[in-house]
Amino acid sequence: MDPVTQGTLGAALPQSVAHPHKIGLAMLCGIAGGMAPDLDVLIRSATDPLLFLEYHRQFTHSLIFIPLGAALVALVLWGAVGRRRDWAFREIYLFAGLGYATHALLDACTSYGTLLFWPFSQERFAWNNVSIIDPLLTLPLIALVLTSRLSHRRWPAVLGMLWAIGYLSLGVVARDAAVEVGQQIAKGRGHTPQVVEAKPSFANLFLWKTIYQQDEHYYVDAVRLGGEPVVYPGEVVATLDLSRDFPWLDHNSLQARDIERFRWFSMGYIAADPDFENRIMDIRYSLLPNEIRPLWSIQLNPQSQDSEHVAYRVSRERGAGTVGRLWSMIRGLPL
């Protein structure tokens, strides 16, 4: 999730159990603990563009790391502020630990993938029940956390936790409903995929991206939930076949190994980009949920496949009318 939501939820949990006179301390420590795991984004390499993909949402997000992560946050807070204000270290540690504990579980609710059981498992957990940014989750939570701080009462923070749990639970219900519609779409095409996945579109729980694989192709569509679901038929792309798509690639080369790293990060949802030569895309994310145009991809170089890593590409380009089309889809209007 975005850092604002992480910090706010991180504050809500310790506030909900703190003594009224400690609400401010709980808020500060909870915000710091709730945001701290994302400091792993600083782990980067000038020569290996994919290194940050391996470490983001890795050890700092593992459930086993919570006690150590909380201790590091508490030490920083105690050294920077706590000693001068005579704050008890055990309280700082408790509040920071509660905030830290919310982070990975909230991240796992998105589609990105979180290594909850590192180092015992390399599985990336993605429950797909909330968008990475969702103001309907975040804004009420911010209001309740601030109300708790200003009133020195626990109940607004408790209500904030209940709101977050309820909203994320609603996301599970919506996700399952979108999967069911996705299965109906596949059945209508005469397909019988083993798995249909649904992922929320940007900042809402109404519009979903469905993905399934049939034979050697991925099928992407959008589903707007409601009394009568609206289906926005999408695009089809061939699954990645290295021998077909990149016949020049040495399968023992550095770039071939980078492709496997990108496949692991993308949880298998990769394909050759039909619009750019020698580019492989992660089809999970796109600005419009019925499109395959990726937000990120990797660029291969046939001339340096064993001497340089692949290049990492991020695309934020929007075609004409993209925002308007997305808003129309969220409202369930015809395109």
From TrEMBL:
Entry keyword annotation includes Transmembrane helix: yes
UniProt keywords, alphabetically: Hydrolase, Membrane, Transmembrane, Transmembrane helix
Pfam families documented for this protein: YdjM
Gene Ontology molecular-function annotations: hydrolase activity
Superkingdom of this protein's organism: Bacteria
TM regions (residue ranges): 59-81, 93-120, 126-146, 155-174
Xref: PANTHER family: HYPOTHETICAL MEMBRANE SPANNING PROTEIN, MEMBRANE-BOUND METAL-DEPENDENT HYDROLASE
Full protein name: Metal-dependent hydrolase
Source taxonomy: Bacteria, Pseudomonadati, Pseudomonadota, Gammaproteobacteria, Cellvibrionales
